[in-house]
Design brief:
It is globular and about 50 Å long. Strands 6-5-8-3-2-1-9 form a 7-stranded mixed sheet. It has 176 residues and is of the alpha+beta class.
């Protein structure tokens, strides 16, 4: 059911009606039929996962990082999944517009990653190591966070980055 829900969320903004109302009105069997129909009728409604065009330059303790920006919901849903490698000193920054408790998992993510949860000021709240292809473990922020930065496994430890360090994000564009 989880995979279905994720795919349903990816297409909600692309269809001319509210699928949630359809689910409540007609039940899940019919909803799944409609969902399959939508996948074939609107193939662009399920964007492929892959590199994101928008990036930001990030500095942590003198180290420079290029981070792909996951701002749109489909970018956040895909994250770094279905990739076989991550270039050195590259990562992905998940951008939210309000502080929130965050939960990540590693479904379809083939490479081991580290994640740092950041507050609105860019200070690291907590850092976790994430195992590839693991759908049994959920990785949570220790407090409401504004950003999450995923890097190759052990990147933060290897660069002596710790909780409380400040991440400077150099935005190349503004978001609303």
């Amino acid at each position: 059911m989880r995979v279905f829900d994720v795919k349903l969320n990816r297409i909600r903004s692309k269809v001319p009606f509210d699928l949630g109302i359809v689910a409540m009105s007609w039940g899940t069997g019919l909803l799944r039929t409609i969902y399959v129909w939508i996948l074939f009728a609107f193939p662009s409604a399920t964007p492929a996962c892959g590199p994101v065009d928008r990036t930001a330059e990030i500095q942590i303790n003198g180290y420079r990082i290029t981070a792909e920006l996951a701002v749109a919901e489909h970018e956040k849903n895909c994250g770094l999944s279905l990739r076989d490698s991550l270039p050195e000193d590259h990562g992905m920054l998940f951008v939210y517009f309000e502080d929130r408790m965050m939960i990540f998992w590693m479904k379809d993510t083939r490479i081991p990653l580290s994640i740092a949860f950041l507050d609105a000021g860019g200070y690291i709240l907590n850092i976790l190591e994430m195992k590839p292809m693991n759908t049994d473990t959920f990785y949570r922020s220790s407090a409401p966070a504004r950003y999450a930065l995923e890097m190759s496994a052990k990147w933060f430890a290897e660069h002596y980055v710790e909780v409380g360090d400040r991440v400077a994000i150099h935005w190349s564009e503004k978001f609303e």
